[in-house]
Write a structure and sequence with these properties.
The complex is a heterodimer of chains A (99) and B (163).
Chain A: E1 25-30, H1 37-48, H2 52-65, E2 67-73, H3 75-88, E3 91-96
Antiparallel strand pairs in A: 1-2, 1-3
Chain B: E1 6-11, H1 12-30, H2 39-44, H3 53-82, E2 100-105, H4 107-127, H5 141-161
Helix pairs in contact in B: 1-3, 3-4, 4-5
The chains are: A alpha+beta (99), B mainly alpha (163).
């Protein structure tokens, strides 16, 4: 009887690059030289239903940092948000939350 | 929730210019130029997956036509609301050119205006190759139009969002 075979598995493989289903997705809005600060604030208020100070804080994050995460959650939902941002003329991308 | 009807005051000449500009925009969006061949159209349907061509292609196939259809519908709403104000006399000396007229925009119409003004600016910025917010060629009159659209957009946002 042979002992249970121990496959030569490198346990580190894929730990870094695999897609972790539990890691949430994000909708990211990027700064651009065209859209007005007032308009971007309006979009965040109208679409996400944010109070003005919160919408302005988010707008300034986009403006000052070059981008801001505007939503987190399931991928399909983040894609809907991105499409909605595109509909307003904002530049949005979808990504899995960086680990 | 933001938004209520807004009364916009414009000179007939300005309304006519705006209608012409939005008309050109509608023609551009109506044209058959694929996004891949025109950066201005591409800017209206950006990819949410810049690092994943397959996902980008799939997303675009699902959303591009909806987004462009919406641009056309918005532009049509703007043109309709401008039609009366944009009626100008043939004689350029006619004082009616500068007559101020009021346009009442219902909330849904305001939203179409905001999206359209923003989109027309995106297209112009591609054509003018604007990469910095303050980048302006003072000798190019198109920058004047671009700024004027920004001024109108900003004013409309302010009236629409005021408590």
């Amino acid at each position: 009887m042979s002992p249970l075979a121990t496959p030569a598995v490198d346990e580190h493989v894929d730990l870094v690059h695999r897609t972790d289903p539990d890691r949430p997705w994000q909708t990211v809005v990027w700064d651009d030289p065209v859209n007005l600060m007032s308009y971007v604030t309006h979009v965040f208020r109208e679409y996400f239903g944010l109070p003005r100070p919160e919408a302005e804080r988010l707008m300034l994050a986009v403006h000052n940092d070059g981008h801001a995460v505007v939503s987190r959650g399931a991928r399909e939902r983040m894609e809907l948000h991105a499409q909605a941002m595109h509909d307003y003329g904002l530049w949005a991308t979808v990504r899995q939350e960086p680990s | 929730m933001t938004g209520h009807a807004v009364v916009l005051e414009v000179a007939r000449l300005e309304a006519a210019h705006l209608a012409a500009l939005v008309g050109q925009f509608a023609e551009l969006v109506d044209g058959s130029t694929p996004a891949a061949e025109d950066p201005a159209i591409a800017r209206l349907v950006p990819t949410p997956y810049p690092d994943d061509d397959d996902a980008a292609r799939e997303f675009r196939s699902l959303t591009e036509s909806d987004l462009l259809t919406r641009r056309r519908a918005d532009a049509a709403i703007v043109l309709l609301s401008l039609a009366e104000a944009a009626g100008i006399p043939d004689d350029p000396e006619d004082p009616a050119m500068l007559e101020q007229v009021e346009i009442r925009l219902e909330p849904e119409t305001v939203r179409a205006w905001l999206r359209t003004l923003a989109a027309v600016r995106l297209v112009m910025a591609e054509r003018l190759e604007i990469t910095e917010a303050e980048e302006h060629d003072p000798d190019d009159p198109r920058f004047g139009i671009y700024d004027w659209l920004g001024y109108r957009l900003d004013g409309l946002v302010a009236s629409f969002d005021e408590a």
